[in-house]
Design brief:
Strand order of the largest sheet: 1-6
Distance between the termini: 29 Å
Bound molecules: iron/sulfur cluster
Length: 181
């Protein structure tokens, strides 16, 4: 469910066309004049959130609690040392049990607050990363869990883009979300 007004916009099919035009203009200005990769990444991040929305509803598969990855400053905690260090700063991480790869890395985490009926047994105190799913995953540039009741979709009536860079980024985002193009 949406957490606040800002996050609620992620569930709306309607685009902010003016915002999209402004961001697209800034994007083109950067592509042809400034040519900064860093600025392009930032502008695409903003544009991406204006172009896509999240549809559907939770089907209580439990996948987002059973197969989750934790991040610290954008880096996956895919090694026990990284996880232990982060867990010292965030004691609530103790609920997440690392699921190891054969080479000793962390493949994903499984939460021990998930009940056999796929319900959260600590719903009131669930961490912010849980509250933010699925928006959080999309904002971080990731995909949603397999068999998730939510899906990422393109908003209706968005402008037609001609710039190749934007088109390539659009396709990349769509493929990441499992769309067959
Ligand atoms: S705290 Fe609750 S919502 Fe968060 S991963 Fe665990 S079971 Fe899922
Ligand atoms: S993966 Fe999606 S459908 Fe499954 S419990 Fe999480 S939000 Fe619900």
């Amino acid at each position: 469910m949406p957490l606040n007004e800002l996050e609620a916009t992620f569930y709306s099919v309607h685009p902010h066309r003016i915002k999209i035009y402004l961001l697209y203009t800034a994007f083109l200005f950067n592509v042809y004049v400034i040519r900064s990769q860093r600025l392009q990444d930032i502008l695409w991040e903003w544009l991406r959130t204006e172009l896509f929305y999240i549809a559907g509803a939770c089907q209580h598969s439990g996948n987002c609690c059973r197969y989750l990855m934790l991040y610290n400053k954008g880096k996956a905690l895919n090694h026990p040392e990284l996880f232990q260090k982060a867990a010292q700063e965030k004691p609530y991480y103790s609920r997440f049990i690392p699921q190891m790869t054969t080479s000793g890395g962390i493949d994903h985490f499984q939460c021990n607050c998930l009940s056999a009926e796929n319900k959260c047994t600590d719903y009131k105190n669930r961490p912010r990363l849980c509250q933010q799913y699925p928006i959080g995953n999309f904002l971080k540039g990731g995909d949603l869990h397999g068999d998730c009741g939510y899906t990422v979709r393109l908003r209706e009536n968005i402008p037609i883009f001609h710039n190749r860079t934007v088109l390539a980024l659009l396709v990349q985002t769509a493929r990441l979300q499992g769309w067959q193009l």
